[in-house]
Design brief:
The chain has 415 residues and is of the alpha/beta class. It is built from 15 helices and 15 strands. Strands 10-11-9-8-12-13-15-14 form an eight-stranded mixed beta sheet, sandwiched between helices. The chain has a seven-stranded parallel beta sheet with strand order 3-2-1-4-5-6-7, sandwiched between helices. One of its GO terms (molecular function) is glycosyltransferase activity.
Length: 415
């Protein structure tokens, strides 16, 4: 149903690089087909990497500074967002990312408030220290129930919010992220350059895509890959960049791996073991011709990179981390009470032990090396898993997912 007179304000902390920002952009584009949409952001210090074409308003309130500055800026954000909601006669304000959620909730006036929760809160390694305690013990339990609706991107976030933060179950609904299935499939067909193709021809390629951050937990992947190289030739390709770039390169070098770094502008040849390609306009062209997509995350929401690799028809090997991978690969199975310690052949890919438990890390790395070795030895199985992966992603098309979003917004508007 289309409601061009209903005004939706989409609100996010920043529009820099990130999965939540990409989802925010996609929501803005799609919801504008049904409602009048305006975007708002704390400030534009990180630029706007995902312009949607809809009006974007900056609250123009900086971040950082001393604790007193932060408190003052928090208050300014609340005041300015409340004023913006009133000026625009906002019917529903939908916020993405936790900082924006608090400001949205505390600026609530006549309009409705919907939160979109993008990831695990209990397992987020970035929620730590005194501020983390404040977020987990005071802000989330005290504020989240003020929302009219809370949309989680993964079913497994719901019990966390209910049991960990006292959120009322009736406020929660799960709507998975959607994927541009057809568009990604087309981009994946772009050919590699001759130099890139030579790398892929030299040995089977394992590829991973995502930011180089604590969450993505790529360092142990290098250990597992080094063990795999003792058994068979292979290449490991990283698509993406981030603050742990130097640490990961150093770790690879300590493992005596030969490392290619795109930012050094060295000639690309098949003579390396590990390839750091940096940010790429089209990551899918590097994923499609790979033998296996590997995903070692410590925690997730509903991981875009994993789903995109599956659209490319590549078999996926992923940690069974909270939250998302199990929901995608084994949708009919419950989350295990204790983390898995063996490889699990799921209907749509391989679920693996997490690589962040010190007491079991050596054994878990061995499970990864064994599983990758077995997959690289079985081309028929890889092809079969790749086909299944692609089939699964047809469940997450734009049309299917946005029918659910429009239903939630219309239900909130009807109250």
């Amino acid at each position: 149903m289309t409601h061009p007179t209903r005004h939706i304000l989409l609100f996010i902390s920043n529009l820099g690089l990130g999965g939540a920002q990409r989802v925010f952009h996609d929501h803005s584009v799609e919801l504008a087909k049904h409602y009048r949409v305006t975007e708002a952001v704390f400030n534009l210090d990180g630029g706007n990497l995902y312009p949607s074409g809809n009006e974007l308003i900056s609250l123009d309130v900086a971040g950082g500074g001393s604790p007193i500055d932060k408190i003052r800026n928090f208050g300014r954000r609340i005041t300015r967002l409340r004023s913006l909601k009133q000026r625009l006669a906002t019917d529903v304000c939908i916020s993405h990312l936790e900082g924006a959620d608090y400001v949205n909730l505390l600026s609530k006036s006549q309009g409705k408030v919907v939160l979109c929760i993008h990831g695990s809160k209990l397992h987020d390694g970035n929620i730590s220290g005194p501020i983390g305690w404040l977020r987990k013990k005071v802000l989330m339990p005290g504020l989240y129930n003020r929302a009219d609706r809370i949309v989680t991107v993964s079913r497994d976030i719901n019990p966390e919010l209910i049991e960990g933060f006292g959120v009322e179950p009736q406020k929660l609904v799960t709507i998975n992220n959607f994927f541009e299935v057809e568009q990604i499939g087309q981009k994946a067909q772009e050919p590699l350059t001759p130099a890139e193709q030579a790398v892929y021809d030299a040995a089977p390629v394992l590829v991973t895509s995502g930011r180089l951050t604590i969450q993505k937990n790529q360092a142990p992947l290098l250990d597992s890959f080094a063990a795999l190289l003792q058994r068979r030739p292979a290449k490991l390709v990283f698509v993406g960049d981030g603050e742990l770039r130097a640490d990961l390169v150093a770790h690879a070098l300590r493992l005596n791996l030969r490392v290619y770094q795109a930012w050094n502008n060295d000639p690309l040849t098949p003579d390396y073991d590990v390839y750091f390609l940096g940010l790429q306009q089209n990551p899918f062209k590097y994923i499609r011709p790979a033998a296996v997509f590997v995903f070692p995350s410590a925690w997730e929401g509903f991981p875009m990179a994993l789903g995109e690799a599956m659209i490319c028809g590549v078999p996926v090997v992923t940690t069974d981390c909270p939250t998302g991978p199990r929901e995608i690969l084994a949708p009919d199975t419950p989350t295990p009470a204790v983390p898995i310690r063996q490889a699990e052949a799921a209907p749509y890919g391989m679920l693996m032990p997490m690589l962040n438990q010190p007491t079991s890390l050596a054994a878990d790395l061995q499970v990864w090396a064994n599983t990758l070795d077995e997959l690289l030895a079985d081309a028929d199985r890889r092809q079969h898993l790749g086909r299944l992966a692609n089939q699964r992603m047809q469940d997450f098309t734009r049309e299917k997912i946005f029918r659910q979003w429009v239903a939630v917004i219309d239900e909130v508007l009807a109250r």
